[in-house]
TrEMBL record:
GO terms for cellular component: membrane. It catalyses: ATP + protein L-histidine = ADP + protein N-phospho-L-histidine. Gene3D superfamilies: 1.20.5.1930, Histidine kinase-like ATPase, C-terminal domain (3.30.565.10). The chain crosses the membrane at residues 15-34, 41-59, 65-81, 88-106, 112-129. SUPFAM superfamilies: ATPase domain of HSP90 chaperone/DNA topoisomerase II/histidine kinase. Coiled coil: none annotated. It holds the Pfam family HisKA_3. It comes from Actinokineospora terrae. Residues 252-336 form the Histidine kinase/HSP90-like ATPase domain. This is histidine kinase. It comes from the Bacteria. Keywords: ATP-binding, Kinase, Membrane, Nucleotide-binding, Phosphoprotein, Transferase, Transmembrane, Transmembrane helix, Two-component regulatory system. GO terms for molecular function: ATP binding; phosphorelay sensor kinase activity; protein dimerization activity.
């Protein structure tokens, strides 16, 4: 579209002002704009190289048509989409073109200085847009990562509980149908919760759709993790949680939730999972232990990596590893203020 608009404009000015060579070169350079995103250095080299050659052929500074102002798009594109090496080479080409016509007396020193200032300003604008675009991309990536963690932490917890209840129901169905029905009810509840949380995440991802966001999980919500069955999950909170900041409370809950989910999935022969939170004036301590057998060695997955990163965002630490005697221990220490490092 841009090329289709510029060609008639250049032709009209060329006819009015005369100058066949200037018009031909100006029209011929318009398609070079198509390369400004994919090959910005090539576009700059062709355009400014052609201008230098045309200046020598016509005996005066080229371009001499006002419509050729479109060439300022090229230095902008060079800094917006080109690499650092391409930007340096492209800048050298443009400086060489300006220096050539100045040395040949086709451009005064003041005009050369003014042209250089314009080029530098346009290139600075391109660099600023590039920086802003990359910063925005980093923000989007961070949001995606946070959503992925929330999806993993919440939905995986419910799915793990569903799987455990399903296994229990299958085992009890022949001898205790009532217990199997109870397991099915728990599966139904967990599935409904998982669906609600997935729908909430989908609504967040839909552009322009408003979502009523409730308060995030808090330390007091850890009681939701307590469960009977196999393994038994016991939760203990020591200290006052009234003034624990929301980000700290949410992080403690997510860390504990992920640790319980991992214990259910990976702790072999575990009969008990202990979740203990101690709130001190300066730090919130979390410790999740199970009495299962040693788990097979495996590289850390998204869950453990996400736990470590969640704690680090608030200036805290999170570690996970085998207990001295048996089982697995997840320990996290978070500053009570929730101040990131």
């Amino acid at each position: 579209m841009l090329v289709g608009v510029l060609v008639p404009v250049v032709l009209v000015e060329g006819v009015v002002r005369g100058g066949v060579l200037s018009t031909v070169v100006a029209v011929g350079l318009v398609p070079v704009l198509l390369l400004r995103r994919s090959e910005p250095l090539l576009a700059v080299g062709v355009a400014f190289g052609a201008c230098a050659v045309a200046s020598v052929l016509v005996g005066h500074d080229f371009p001499d048509l006002n419509a050729v102002v479109y060439l300022v798009l090229l230095p902008f594109a060079l800094l917006r989409w080109g690499s650092g090496r391409e930007a340096a080479l492209g800048a050298a080409v443009m400086v060489a073109q300006v220096g050539l016509v100045t040395l040949l007396g086709m451009k005064s020193a003041s005009d050369a200085l003014a042209g250089t200032v314009v080029l530098v300003a346009v290139m600075a604008l391109g660099a600023a847009v590039r920086y802003r675009s990359r910063a925005r991309a980093r923000e989007v990536d961070q949001v995606k990562l946070l959503l992925a963690r929330d999806l993993h932490d919440t939905v995986a917890h419910h799915v793990s509980a569903m799987a455990i209840r399903a296994q229990a129901g299958i085992a009890l169905a022949p001898t205790d149908p009532a217990a199997a029905v109870a397991a099915l009810r728990v599966i139904d509840e967990e599935a409904a919760l998982a669906l609600d949380e997935m729908r909430a995440l989908v609504r967040v991802l839909r552009a322009g759709e408003q979502v009523e966001m409730g308060p995030g999980p808090r330390v007091d919500d850890l009681a939701r993790l307590a469960a009977t069955g196999h393994p038994v999950v016991d939760v203990e909170v020591v200290g006052s949680t009234a003034d624990v900041p929301a980000p700290v409370g949410a992080t403690v809950f997510r860390l504990a939730q992920e640790a319980v989910t991992n214990a259910r999935k990976h702790a072999r022969n575990a009969t008990s999972v202990q979740v203990r939170v101690e709130v001190t004036p300066t730090t919130v301590h979390l410790r999740v232990t199970d009495n299962g057998g040693p788990a097979p060695a495996r590289p850390p997955g998204l869950g453990l990596t996400g736990m470590i990163e969640r704690a680090a965002l608030l200036g805290g630490t999170c570690t996970a590893g085998p207990a001295p005697e048996r089982g697995w221990v997840v320990a996290a220490d978070l500053p009570r203020t929730g101040a990131a490092r």
